[in-house]
Design a protein that fits this description.
Blueprint (H helix, E strand, L loop, with lengths): L1 E3 L17 E3 L2 E2 L2 E2 L3 H13 L5 E3 L10 H10 L12 H8 L24 H5 L9
Parallel strand pairs: 1-2, 1-5
Antiparallel strand pairs: 3-4
């Protein structure tokens, strides 16, 4: 079974076995095929049913890819899994253009920052903070 997202090169789908079950779970801003919880549950349920589940993502699954959330669900349910890291575009694009992301003579660090942080995150990590009432 192949569970794949919006950023996957569709030519890769041609490499699956003819009888493979393909499930598109792509998400774009305000256009989600499934919620993240539904994706997590789908992966876990199919694995519990004895299927070999491949979660194919564009880029690195642990860099803004929700791979950590998917892995947490599998760990919680005692489902063994393997992660094959990808290459995040934050590093790949500059490298492809011949631009080093770090260079001893020019820069010793870089940051990758999301523009899509969960607005409720600070209430979960700091239980003493009260959620504002509307």
């Amino acid at each position: 079974m192949l569970v794949y997202d919006r950023l996957v090169d569709k030519r890769l789908l041609n490499e699956t076995k003819p009888n493979a079950e393909l499930v598109y779970v792509g998400k774009a801003s305000n256009a989600h095929t499934l919620t993240q919880d539904e994706i997590n549950n789908l992966i876990a349920a199919k694995a519990r049913d004895g299927k070999i589940v491949t979660r194919l993502k564009g880029g690195d699954p642990f860099v803004f890819g929700r791979g950590g959330e998917e892995a947490e669900v599998l760990v919680e349910q005692g489902i063994p899994f393997e992660v094959v890291p990808g290459i995040t575009s934050a590093v790949a694009v500059p490298a492809y253009a011949g631009i080093p992301i770090t260079h001893r003579d020019h820069t010793s660090s870089f940051a990758v920052i999301t523009g899509h942080e969960d607005p409720l995150r600070m209430y979960r990590i700091s239980p003493g903070i009260k959620f504002p009432q509307e």
